[in-house]
Amino acid sequence: MRDNNKAETRNSLILHLRPRQVSARAIKFTHTFGLGGMALVLVLLLLFTGILMMFAYEPTPERAWQSIASFQEDVLFGRLIRGVHYWSANLLIPVVVLHLLRVYLTGGFHSRRRSNWLIGLSVLGFILLSGFTGYLLPWDQTAYWAITICTEMLGLVPGIGQGLQSAVVGGSQIGSATIINFYALHVAVTPMALIALLSWHFWKIRMAGGVVLPSASVDNPRAAFRTVPFKPDLLLRETVVSLVLIALVLVTAIIFSAPLGEPANPGISPNPAKAPWYFLGFQELLIHFDAMFALIVIPLLVVAALIVIPYLSYAADISGDWFLTSKGRRMAVVAAVTAMVLVPLWVLLDEHLIGPGGWLPGMPSLISNGLVPFVFLLAGIIGFYVLIKKSFSATNNEAVQSLFVLVFVAFSLLTATGIWFRGPGMSLVWPWQM
Ligand code: HEM
Fold this sequence. Notes:
Number of domains: 2
Largest sheet: 2 strands, antiparallel
Bound molecules: protoporphyrin IX containing FE
Strand order of the largest sheet: 1-2
Radius of gyration: 24 Å
Strand content: under 5%
Structural class: mainly alpha
Shape: globular
CATH class of the largest domain: Mainly Alpha
Distance between the termini: 68 Å
CATH topology of the largest domain: Cytochrome Bc1 Complex, Chain C
Oligomer: single chain
CATH architecture of the largest domain: Up-down Bundle
Number of helices: 17
């Protein structure tokens, strides 16, 4: 019997990649929601459809738009292939962010999983770079002006901004150097980096003994160690989730074609000109803070916080249960509600009371729109941490978790404001007035 099993392992690629037995608790859908697997399916769809489009795409300002238009019109299934690429890319970002959230909220970043958290963060960075570089390639008005806005945002950073902007653009204006740089990054650098990093990510999951598991139930400790065979139990579930996702992307791509607007016209800027939707949180920050804080200080602090999360000292290495404890769950709700009240208030206050002059009109923008609101923000965040920890008599795991939820919900709300509530001149409007 054992010999049969060994022979089966030797002959099966899948069983080399995955364990023969998996924990029954690890494959419960609500433990991971299959988000990591979904992200992988979307990455594979992107690679497959991207390679097909490379046969037709021409990365020059003169030919880019036309090559995409004729790929859609003249190539068999061209429109569908581009649609699948477009929708997979737009779905990948929320799926990966939700996966990050799931890993964080189930404590999947402690001890043996620390380095995999960092690998995951690099994966996220490359996914954003891939989205950003791909955005320009259709060379229509939306693409051209979204990338113009993003690169102009870089140019606003005091001191290094201009240098940063011309390095990304490859000159003083978006043109053939930009499109060829973006193309190389999009079709060679980011896919290769993602393939390497994801292989490492999966190997690390295997090395950590699979996904993090909920702590053993005291009433029924035997259930905690129950295992089920990978084939068919997990394989079947993964196949079903993958097929449902592929069907969803296909149907979406059939019903809603990927947009292709008028060819890029550097002379006519749309109003409002917005960054790609996943960067609108930053564009929104730019409305409320000086560029130095909106584009450098705050993003760097958030990235630094994400990196140090696994290295903070925690009261106990509790892993595997959603929100750690029931108290942790209640604190997370309080954090989310706090962000839902304070962020819209801040946005409205800034629009109607404070205005573009900032908090101390007459002072330089770096102080009036930068340092002063930033100190308020920091004081609010520290105050929230101290207050919630004390009022719930919480451990630092629970308090840090509620801070994470607060910042996550706040940034999501800023992004939503940028997507749905900013109209001409980036002033506040209702979505139906846009
Ligand atoms: C395309 C991007 C990604 C893919 C395909 C991917 C895939 C996966 C898969 C399949 C798993 C195991 C099961 C699951 O959670 O569904 C996993 C676990 C994990 N992922 Fe990712 N992931 C990606 C991005 C990220 C990001 C952005 C992070 C965050 C920093 C991250 C951190 C982790 C960690 C730490 C684990 C182990 C957690 C545990 O043991 O519970 N991953 N990933």
